[in-house]
Every structure is written in C-alpha cells, then in structure tokens.
Automatic annotation (TrEMBL):
Keyword Ribosomal protein carried by entry: no
Source taxonomy: Bacteria, Bacillati, Actinomycetota, Actinomycetes, Mycobacteriales
InterPro entries: AAA+_ATPase, ABC_transporter-like_ATP-bd, ABC_transpr_TagH-like, Bact_Polysacc_Export_ATP-bd, P-loop_NTPase
Family (UniProt): Belongs to the ABC transporter superfamily.
SUPFAM superfamilies: P-loop containing nucleoside triphosphate hydrolases
Disordered: annotated span: 1-20
Transmembrane residue ranges: none
UniProt name for this protein: ABC transporter ATP-binding protein
GO MF terms, alphabetically ordered: ATP binding
PROSITE patterns for this protein: ABC_TRANSPORTER_2
Domain named ABC transporter: residues: 46-280
Keyword Cytoplasm: no
C-alpha cells in the first residue's frame, strides 16, 4: 500500500493532464483518474514478419511497430477513467485485452507511455502473490512482511497476526515455509492480510478465485465489508458470479480500449450475452434476499 499519491505521465502528456486537473478535486478525496493513458510494450527480441500495419487478433493487445521498426504491443490505448469514493468497478474482456495492465498502471507499477494517470489514496494491490512474500520463511512471518509491504508497521501486524492466522485456517502450516504452500493456501494468506488492513483503493485480480468454495464464502463477507470500508475497488475477473458479488459497475476492455462502461448486468450482457446477464441478475437478487 503506498502512502503517497502517485501521478505518472507519458513523455508526451498533454498540458491539461494530471496537474492542471487538480483544481477539480479536493486534496483529501480518494480518486483514480487516467487521461488518455496508453501503455506500450516494445518487444526487442520478437521474431516477426515486417509490421507495415497494426495487427489485430481476437485475444491480446494490438501489435504494431515503433518508428524505428521495433515490434510493439499496445496493451492499453487512450484510457480515460475517473473513479471516486464508493466506486466498485469490475473489468471484463478477452485474454490479453489489457485488464492486468490497467491494474498495474493504477497500482503505479507501470507508467503510461502516453497520457497520464493520477491515483489519490493508499493503494493495496492484491495480485502478483509473489510480491511482498518470501518463499523461504514461514507463513506467520509472511503475514508480517506482506502487511509491511502494504504500508503497516511490524507492531501493527503483530497485533493482527492471531486474527489473520485464524481466518486463514492454515493451522500448523503457518509454521512452514511459504514454498510448501499451494496457490490457494497463498491466496488465503494474502486475503487474510489485505482484509485486516484498511486500504483506500483496493485492486484485485482473479487470482483470488484460487481458493475453495467454502473459504470463498467466508472470505466474500470479509471482502464485501472491506470493499464498503475502502473507497474504491477495481477488480478484474472472468467470473461473473464473483464480479456481481463485489462490483456494481463494469468496464469492458477490448484490445486495450474501453469498449463499454456501465452497470454490471448491462456490460456483462453486452460482452457475453443474455445468459451471462441473467446469471449476474440472479446473484444480485440472491444477495438482496440475503440482506
Ligand atoms: N510485460 C509485457 N511485455 C510484453 N507484452 C505484454 C506484457 N504484459 C502484457 N503484455 C501484452 O499486453 C496485452 C494485454 O495483456 P494483459 O495481461 O493486460 O491482458 P489481460 O486482459 O489481463 O488478460 P487475461 O485475461 O488473459 O489475464 C497482451 O497483448 C499481452 O501480450
């Protein structure tokens, strides 16, 4: 979790971007803004035919070439996104559409190649489960260091560690090195940590779906409470059920561009068809009935 707000701009960011727009928000507001943000990846070792034109496949970003002929994947293109306190937004789209790249842009891991991105608030990214964890030390120690990675102090994490340990249900495994854990066990640990702290901006990807159904039922309640406490959620997933449980709006990302933004049911329906929209509706109805 980063304490400082971050603003990143591409080399050619227009004069209007991040700084001059500061006037429209108050200093304390939790916000995420991107203005025409694009992320390109140059691929120096690609074996390619010549790229006279941009190439489009069904999956993946647009492949083209830089002025000097280096193949490039345009992973995100002209993303204009404005989120404020209370927004819970899901990202849908084909493999390689750009969802993870957008999560990394918002987390400050990538900078925009063009355009600008400004994030105001403490960000807790829950993806790349390897980041902020050490395979050689115990689960207990990893609870502490992952919390510190997300901006907590060691003392604060020690005070929370019993509660987190209980939540994970990992028992004696917490004494063992993390390298002995399955993916789902690692996710349990990461979810235990992130749901015990109070990030303002929570960035999740579907790696968290690796846990079993019983645990997810339990984690969902904690996640929903966390999402209500935290200001903004951005969640990339291929699971409509999970999206409907956590998000109320969605963005459909297609070949690096925003194809549609709207209510979760409408966007899932446009992306995957009426049966998927009906599934979302069913989840929403079930959740309403549970309340
Ligand atoms: N580090 C990288 N180097 C080169 N290309 C990359 C890199 N990361 C992503 N890409 C490319 O950027 C595009 C977007 O990828 P991204 O991982 O953001 O998609 P995604 O929507 O998260 O896909 P999925 O649903 O499969 O997880 C893809 O064409 C991918 O090949």
């Amino acid at each position: 979790m980063t304490d400082d707000d971050h603003t990143t701009e591409g080399a050619d960011a227009p004069a209007h971007s991040a700084h001059s727009r500061n006037t429209i928000v108050t200093a304390s507001a939790v916000r995420v803004d991107t203005w025409d943000a694009s992320v390109d990846f140059p691929i120096f070792d690609a074996k390619t035919r010549s790229f006279k034109k941009s190439v489009l496949g069904r999956a993946g970003g647009v492949i083209g070439a830089s002025d000097s002929g280096v193949p490039m994947v345009e992973a995100l293109s002209n993303i204009d996104l404005h989120l404020e306190h209370g927004d819970r937004i899901g990202l849908v789209g084909h493999n390689g559409a750009g969802k993870s790249t957008l999560l990394r842009l918002l987390s400050g891991i990538y900078e925009p190649t063009r355009g600008a991105c400004r994030v105001r608030g403490r960000v807790a990214p829950v993806f790349d489960l390897g980041v902020g964890m050490d395979p050689e030390i115990s689960g207990f120690e990893n609870i502490i260091i992952r919390g510190m990675f997300l901006g907590m102090t060691r003392k604060e994490m020690l005070a929370k560690s019993d509660d987190i340990a209980e939540f994970t249900e990992l028992g004696q495994h917490l004494e063992m090195p993390l390298r002995t854990y399955s993916t789902g066990m690692r996710v349990r640990l990461a979810l235990g940590v992130v749901t015990s702290i109070d990030p303002e901006i929570l960035i999740l990807d579907e790696g968290i779906g690796a846990v079993d159904a019983d645990f997810m039922r339990k984690a969902r309640k904690r996640l929903q409470a966390l999402v209500e406490r935290s200001g903004i959620l951005v969640f990339a997933s291929h699971s409509n059920e999970f999206l409907a449980q956590l998000c109320d709006r969605a963005l459909w990302i297609d070949k690096g561009r925003i194809k549609m933004e709207g209510g979760i049911e409408d966007v899932v329906g446009a992306y995957e068809g009426p049966a998927a929209a009906a599934q979302v509706r069913e989840v929403l109805n079930r959740m309403e009935a549970d309340e």
